C-alpha cells in the first residue's frame, strides 16, 4: 500500500539514453567514408520528426501549484473559465489527480520524447487528505504521475528545510512516525523526481540547499532544467520555515546556471520559475499575445522573462495561480514562451519543443504550446483512486467530523473582491476567540488573504449533507495550523500596516487584510500607493483610530512576524500566544451555527472601495 518507486524512473532513463547513444555510434561508424552528418542523422534516426530525424519533437507537459489537491477541488476552486469567440464565458469543473493522471497519460501517447515538469508549490497549503500526513500522499501521487522534475515554491518551505529534505529523500516523520504502518503502508520513500532550488542557499556555506539543475536525456537528446523560487519567499513564509536560508535573485541565478549547463554541453534549457504574472483575462484560453507578444500579461514574471539569458528556451512559471501561454521577448528581442497552468491540478500545459540534433538547441520558431483543461469526463486512473482510498481510510475519521453549518457558499479563495465574505468570518472568529482578557484581550483581528486557501461550499462533499462544514473542509480553508498571537500595536503602527497593503512590497500587487467587525475604512483605488488608504476614515467601533493609543490586535503568527510585506505588524509587543487559527475557527462555527440556524453569508461591507 502507498508504496513509492524510488529512483526507478531515473535508472530507466539513464539506461535508455545509453542504449540510444550506443546504437547511434554503431550506425555512424558503419557509414561510408565522406558521408555527410545529415546522412548520418537520417541513417540513425530516419526522418520522422516525432523522434527519428535531425529535428525531434520533444513534448513538455507541465503544471504548477497543485497544493496537495488530490481530490477534485470544490466550488469555484475547482473551476476554470473558458472564453468563447463571441466573448461569452463558461465555467468548467476541473481538477483531481485521478483525472490529471488520465489526461497526462493520454497526452503522452504517441510521443517518443515526453518530459513532465512542474513549477513549485506542489505541496503545502494542502487539503486535509494530504496535509494531515505532511503531504506524503501528494508525493506518492506525483511519483505515480511520472513527474520528472520540479522547482521548489515558497510553500515547499512551510515546514522548513529539514522537512523539505525528507520530502526529497524519504523517511518517517520525526515526530509522528510512519503513517499507516498498522495498515500495511510502506515507509515513505520520498520523491522519485528532483526538487530544484538553484537560488536557495545555506547562509553559512553559500551552497545550494538542493540540486540547482537537472539534465533530461534520451537517445542523445539533452534538455537542461533550472529551478528557482521567488526571491521574496522569506516575506511570505514563516520565519522558522526559511531559517538559515538565503534566497537569491531569480534572473542572476538562472543566468549563472545557464552558463554552467552550457559548459556541460547542454544548449537546450528550460527554466522552472515559481513566480508568475497576471493575465488580462481569467480565461485559460485567453490570447495572451494580443495585440502583440506578451501584451496580455503583467506582473513580476514579465521583468524576469525580459532579463533571463536568451539561451533559455522556455519558462514554466507559477505562484500566481493564473493560466497563460505567452511569448515574452528575451533580452535579444526574440520571442520566448512563458506559461502557467492555473493551480490545484485544473490545467496542464502541453508544449512542443523542436530539438535540433546538430546544434543541440531548441528551434524557437517551432515551439508551440497550449493549456488544456483537466476535465472530469474521462475515466479515473485506477492507481490514483486506490491511492486516495488508502489515505482516506486514515483521514476520514478526522475529516468527516461536523464543525458547523452554513446557509450558502461563503467564498474566500473564489472571491475576486478585496474584502472576502470568508475573510470577514475568519477575522470575526479570531476576534471572538481572543477577546476575553485571559485569552489576550483582542480589540480587533487581521487576517492575511493568502492564508484563506478555499471557499466554504454549501453542497455536500461527501455523505455529511448540504450545508455541513466538516473538519476536513475547515482544514482546507486554513491548513497551516498557524498559532494565534495577540499583541500591542500603537494606532500609528496599525495605520501604517493598513497603508502597507498597497505600498512597499505590495505596491504592484495589493494584499488587502481581512478585518474583524467594528474596523472600517475607505480604500480609494483611484489614488496611488499608501494614499489609497484614506487615513481619516480608519475607525474602530465608530471612533477614529488614535495614533498615540495602544490597541490589542489578534493575528496569526505569520502576520505578527511581518509576513506578506507588513513590517509594521512585527512591531507588536506584549505578545500572548493563543490556540491555532483552525481551532479558533472551528470553535466559532460550533458556537454560532446549527442545522436549524446555519451561518449566513457575511455582508463584506467593512471596507468601502472607491474605483
UniProtKB/TrEMBL annotation:
<dbReference type="InterPro" id="IPR041831">
    <property type="entry name" value="YhcR_MPP"/>
</dbReference>
<dbReference type="InterPro" id="IPR036907">
    <property type="entry name" value="5'-Nucleotdase_C_sf"/>
</dbReference>
<dbReference type="Pfam" id="PF02872">
    <property type="entry name" value="5_nucleotid_C"/>
</dbReference>
<keyword id="KW-0378">Hydrolase</keyword>
<feature type="domain" description="5'-Nucleotidase C-terminal">
    <location>
        <begin position="413"/>
        <end position="570"/>
    </location>
</feature>
<comment type="similarity">
    <text>Belongs to the 5'-nucleotidase family.</text>
</comment>
<dbReference type="Pfam" id="PF00149">
    <property type="entry name" value="Metallophos"/>
</dbReference>
<dbReference type="InterPro" id="IPR006179">
    <property type="entry name" value="5_nucleotidase/apyrase"/>
</dbReference>
<keyword id="KW-0732">Signal</keyword>
<feature type="signal peptide">
    <location>
        <begin position="1"/>
        <end position="35"/>
    </location>
</feature>
<feature type="domain" description="Calcineurin-like phosphoesterase">
    <location>
        <begin position="63"/>
        <end position="322"/>
    </location>
</feature>
<dbReference type="InterPro" id="IPR004843">
    <property type="entry name" value="Calcineurin-like_PHP"/>
</dbReference>
<dbReference type="InterPro" id="IPR029052">
    <property type="entry name" value="Metallo-depent_PP-like"/>
</dbReference>
<protein>
    <submittedName>
        <fullName>Bifunctional metallophosphatase/5'-nucleotidase</fullName>
    </submittedName>
</protein>
<keyword id="KW-0547">Nucleotide-binding</keyword>
<dbReference type="InterPro" id="IPR008334">
    <property type="entry name" value="5'-Nucleotdase_C"/>
</dbReference>
